Amino acid sequence: MASKLLSRVRAVPARLGYPRPFSPTLAAFAPSRLLSDAAAAGAGDSPPASASPAPRPSGSSGKLEHNAGCSSVRSSLKDSELAKFSAIADTWWDSEGPFKPLHRMNPTRLAFIRSTLCRHFGKDPSSARPFEGLKVVDVGCGGGILSEPLARMGASVTGVDAVDKNIKIASIHADLDPVTSTIEYCCTTAEKLVEEQRKFDAVISLEVIEHVADPAEFCKSLAALTIPEGAIVISTINRSMRAYATAIVAAEYLLRWLPKGTHQWSSFLTPEELALILQRSSISVKEMAGFVYNPLTGRWSLSDDVGVNFIAFGTKNSQ
């Protein structure tokens, strides 16, 4: 299944100045191939005997004035996930704390986002503010470690998260810089934004989908927030044995990069499953890349290896 997917991947220059500046592309996903692959893929997979939850928050962030009533917001996140990320919310901007892997991965995630969004919207990737004029929502923004660089690249950013503490921390940190103080942080969910009929040029949700109760419904909400021909970027962890060995056994128990119980292997999605879920939400996957960690340099880079961490870029079909 994964080999069939990777046979459609080709590397293209990204020219972003990061350690390995390229992004593998799924230029022509064949829906029929995806349907057959995903049908054969994961539904009956059984997880390893011991598994636990994943590395990163989901659901929301917001300016302090939007926090009232946050606890009453219905969230697509599992209750256990909300409690977990609330407990470590005050460590978001500690680059050596529980979110250290995300701080290390952030430049590579931004490389993929800059490359794909600039290509799709006809922006200049060499510009200091290539996202000028774009309305972007960061769903599951946590403490704002992705929202802030998006704002510095010129985007009009809305950051949402279901964890009240995340919103407060994101707001306080963003207010330290006049550029990032323009971010609209809201303690809410994607589903609530849909009810409010909010629309964005680009919808970004990184390391979130593995924490939600219903990935298909979550993707429908992300699609509903996206304008026709708009963009969606999602990253997550593959439900593979390699991911279990590295993201859980190594990262949590051997290297102790993350608190034990951060990941739940059974909640991960394969690339085929994610692509099929997005397709059923009127999102066509155009590019996909893997993240590979180099223990010698301590850096992440983009790769065509989607066996563990991967990121997907798609566009919403015109209605």
From TrEMBL:
Q: Which GO terms describe its biological process?
A: methylation; ubiquinone biosynthetic process
Q: Where is this region: Disordered?
A: 39-70
Primary place of residence?
Answer: mitochondrion
Q: Where in the cell is it found?
A: Mitochondrion inner membrane
* EC main group: transferase
Q: Which GO terms describe its molecular function?
A: 3-demethylubiquinol 3-O-methyltransferase activity; 3-demethylubiquinone 3-O-methyltransferase activity; metal ion binding; polyprenyldihydroxybenzoate methyltransferase activity
Q: Where is the composition biased (Low complexity)?
A: 39-62
Pfam families noted in UniProt: Methyltransf_23
Q: How does it sit in the membrane?
A: Peripheral membrane protein
The residues the record assigns to binding Mg(2+) are 207, 210-211
Under catalytic activity, the entry for this protein gives: a 3-demethylubiquinone + S-adenosyl-L-methionine = a ubiquinone + S-adenosyl-L-homocysteine; a 3-demethylubiquinol + S-adenosyl-L-methionine = a ubiquinol + S-adenosyl-L-homocysteine + H(+); a 3,4-dihydroxy-5-(all-trans-polyprenyl)benzoate + S-adenosyl-L-methionine = a 4-hydroxy-3-methoxy-5-(all-trans-polyprenyl)benzoate + S-adenosyl-L-homocysteine + H(+)
**EC number(s) per UniProt?**
2.1.1.64, 2.1.1.-, 2.1.1.114
Pathway assignment reads: Cofactor biosynthesis; ubiquinone biosynthesis
What cofactor is this protein dependent on?
A: Mg(2+)
Naming one, the record's GO cellular component terms include: mitochondrion
Question: Which SUPFAM superfamilies does the annotation name?
Answer: S-adenosyl-L-methionine-dependent methyltransferases
Q: Which UniProt keywords apply?
A: Magnesium, Membrane, Metal-binding, Methyltransferase, Mitochondrion, Mitochondrion inner membrane, S-adenosyl-L-methionine, Transferase, Ubiquinone biosynthesis
- Give residues annotated as binding S-adenosyl-L-methionine: 109, 140, 161, 206
Q: What does this protein do?
A: O-methyltransferase required for two non-consecutive steps during ubiquinone biosynthesis. Catalyzes the 2 O-methylation of 3,4-dihydroxy-5-(all-trans-polyprenyl)benzoic acid into 4-hydroxy-3-methoxy-5-(all-trans-polyprenyl)benzoic acid. Also catalyzes the last step of ubiquinone biosynthesis by mediating methylation of 3-demethylubiquinone into ubiquinone. Also able to mediate the methylation of 3-demethylubiquinol into ubiquinol.
UniProt cross-references to HAMAP family, sorted A to Z: UbiG
Q: How does it assemble?
A: Component of a multi-subunit COQ enzyme complex.
Q: Which family does it belong to?
A: Belongs to the class I-like SAM-binding methyltransferase superfamily. UbiG/COQ3 family.
UniProt cross-references to NCBIfam families, sorted A to Z: UbiG
PANTHER family referenced in this protein's UniProt entry, alphabetically: METHYLTRANSFERASE, UBIQUINONE BIOSYNTHESIS O-METHYLTRANSFERASE, MITOCHONDRIAL
Write the protein's name: Ubiquinone biosynthesis O-methyltransferase, mitochondrial
Record the organism: Eucalyptus grandis
Q: What is the lineage of its organism?
A: Eukaryota, Viridiplantae, Streptophyta, Embryophyta, Tracheophyta
